[in-house]
Design a protein that fits this description.
By secondary structure, this protein is mainly α. Helix 2 packs across helix 3, helix 7 runs antiparallel to helix 8 and helix 8 crosses helix 11.
């Protein structure tokens, strides 16, 4: 049998009656009408009633099972104190939060804001915001299961300087090939995003294994595809 049948939803008035008659909770310092409004508009019953565990119950006699000296106003006050206590603890925790813990909590976009803020006063950036923003775009598209190659013919940006400098250092790409690829990629934002991601991995990955892990995945993918026959690509 489901909880909906075993424990039907009670109105605020019914909850007040249950606390008074079954739990022995008094309403000396607040009225039942005010308590009903509180449960309807301010805080729900489960959160408010949770603080009743701080009070003992009668173990025998006519009031067995009912709370000893518990007024509804005490539950309200404990709920308010708990709220302020949580805020204080949260603020203290974040005031003393180590940077490596904070970075684990930040979204990629907020991490970029932190990165830019730090380097404004602490020296030259090793990775430009243009690179990071394009990496963020590609990461978000992948993480949210977007169709990445659904519109290869359109874009809106020229390649950042770091892309041009990185491609210049690739010995197997000639100057004419490089210039041709720039013109073709002038409006291909995905190309820029992929190149920026590759650059970021090369700069920030500490080991060769880390830098090459993505390359291995691409190599395996490309070996499995017959790109000479577009009808059987996928």
């Amino acid at each position: 049998m489901s909880n909906r049948i075993d424990k039907p939803m009670l109105s605020s008035a019914q909850l007040i009656a249950k606390m008074r008659d079954e739990k022995g909770i008094t309403f000396k310092y607040t009225t039942e009408e005010a308590a009903e409004t509180y449960l309807s508009d301010v805080n729900n019953y489960l959160r408010t009633a949770a603080y009743r565990q701080n009070y003992q119950k009668y173990t025998r006699g006519a009031n067995e099972g009912k709370y000893i000296g518990l007024d509804f106003a005490y539950l309200q006050e404990l709920s308010t104190i708990d709220m302020h206590f949580r805020f204080i603890i949260f603020k203290m925790a974040y005031d003393d939060c180590p940077i490596w813990v904070l970075c684990e909590l930040l979204s990629f976009g907020d991490f970029i804001y932190l990165y830019n803020f730090y380097y404004k006063g602490c020296g030259e950036q090793t990775i430009s915001p243009a690179i990071l923003n394009l990496v963020k775009s590609l990461r978000n598209a992948s993480a949210h299961n977007n169709c990445i190659i659904s519109n290869l013919g359109h874009g809106a940006s020229a390649p950042p300087r770091e892309i041009r400098d990185a491609v210049k250092k690739i010995p197997i790409i000639t100057t004419s090939q490089r210039q041709k690829s720039y013109r073709a990629a002038q409006c291909w934002n995905l190309y820029h995003c992929c190149m920026c991601t590759a650059i970021l991995r090369k700069v920030r990955c500490a080991t060769t294994e880390c830098r090459n892990s993505g390359n291995c995945s691409f190599s395996v993918f490309l070996r499995k595809k017959d790109f000479s026959n577009p009808t059987i690509l996928f």
